[in-house]
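Forum: Protein Structure Q&A
Topic: Joint prediction for protein chains with partners

I've read a bunch of threads here and the consensus seems to be that you should model interacting components together rather than docking separate models afterwards. I'd like to see that in practice. Below is the full input, 586 residues plus whatever partners are listed. Could one of the regulars post the assembled result?
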Amino acid sequence: MSPTIHVQQLSKTYKVPEREGGFSAAVRGFFKRKYKEVKAVQQVDFKIEQGEIVGFLGPNGAGKTTTLKMLSGLLHPTDGKADVLGFTPWDLKPEYLRAITLVMGQRNRLSWDIPAADSFLLNQAIYRIPDDEYKATYKELDELLELEPLMKKPVRNLSLGERMKCEIAAGLLHRPKVLFLDEPTIGLDITGQARIREFLREYNKRTGATILLTSHYMADVTALCERIIIIHHGQLKYDGGINLLSKKIAPFKLIGVMLAESNSHDLSKYGELVQNEEDWDKQYIQVKAEDVTRITSRLLADLPIHDITIADPPIEDVIEQAFNS
Amino acid sequence: MQTLKLLSAFFKMNVQMSLAYRADTVVNILLNIMWLGWELLSLNIIFSNTETLGGWGLGELIALLGVFRLVNTLMIALIWPNTEKFNQSIRDGSMDYTILQPVNSMFLVTFSRITVWRFWDLILAVILIVVGINMADQVTSAPQVLTFILLAITGMIIIYSLWIVLIALTFWFVKFDNNVTILQALLDAGRYPATVYPVWLRIIVTFIIPIAVATTVPLQALRGELEAPQILTFILVSIVSFFLASRIWKAGLKQYSGASS
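Posted by a regular:
Agreed with the consensus. Here's the joint model:
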């Protein structure tokens, strides 16, 4: 059987207008535009079989969204081929569009001022879903996502997590065979993220749908996907099992320390000091995962600690370390 | 059939959206009642003082005004709100979802928003047309009335096509919020019979800018001033312009998918 998604040498180059800052440059730029070519995706190849959940991982600007948009049909590639369910996505055949869905965590498809239930009904009309089928699908989604209490409120009154549930449900009413999910958990709190993950796993088990999801959160991917594709600077860097990957990526943890007094203590003897611009009142050290407990207890014993956190390093850093060295 | 179902779904949704905010709804209803009163008053003033304009009789002028109002309703109830939504969707990226729906995107973009409050406008326009035809000096025969209706429809199609072209330009320019302002300016020129304008302007208005086509030409058909070849030409023009517009729309979509990120 041929794979559900088959991508060959897929490439996308954008032309981005570019100019220097300043007034005269703005005037010159009006008459004569300069363009810079940005290679967003370069010769990417992969195959995904029916029923797989594949995690698409990479830092911001790596080309994840661009690839997803090409596979859903929104973008024409500059070069290369893609085959999804036997269709070329960018032909935008209605039969193709009825078989897939694209959910983007940062965009809204639901109308802001009316309850989601009304937007759902519009989707039913657009996708020509027969009444009984619509009811069955809705019931199933409601079971998994607990939609019912959210359906009667205008979308603008929902919390981010609640809205995301409705957005995902709206994208699944037509029972797509292939799901493209772009950062479906972005901005959600830990429980919200866990709930969406739980749902996706269960949905995949029940329907056998193929899922390709991008995420910023390592946890999303480790929880859901057995297989991972890593893309960095538009190039495919890794395609394989998650277990192999964790061997390749040295498992590090980040310990954040806020001292009760001044920051005069030298933390570099406990581990490698790491810059973190977002959280300036803490100092961060990077240590091997197996040493976390030992070093944390030493820190607690040695220093006047006000607050301490242990976290995974940002995915950008992990990939940078694994593939740039 | 599917199209009708979708249209009714859009209409329902727009009614729901208009009713979402209570104060807003009340103000809208009041405003529209006032508006209607004002329009009827101004009609009364025009027709108590004017008998003919550019060689057209009172009945024909009333019918002309009706057709003009029909076009205007199209403008206010459909073109303005959908363009506004379209311009916004290009910038905030929700256009992506529109493109991925298994329905003609041109149809989705042009019919998904309907200003339901202007529905009475449609009724008023039809009343004006019917009254005008009945008052017209020349005895109008059934075929003349039929060609009038036919040409009013072709006129609408030409305006619709022009609109599509204007909004499709946004795909290339990203920001082109004046797209409808241009159309409105062109349309306002169609308020008076094309014959009141100097010849050169009439040529522009009739041929280069086909707005008068939507208002004056149907009326000429009503007066029996048009020959069969002319009528056929207008029908042909509307078909060609619609065809061209959908081609330009498709090219625009392709441009969008080539440029956006």
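Residues 116 and 166 of chain A are 7 Å apart (CA to CA).
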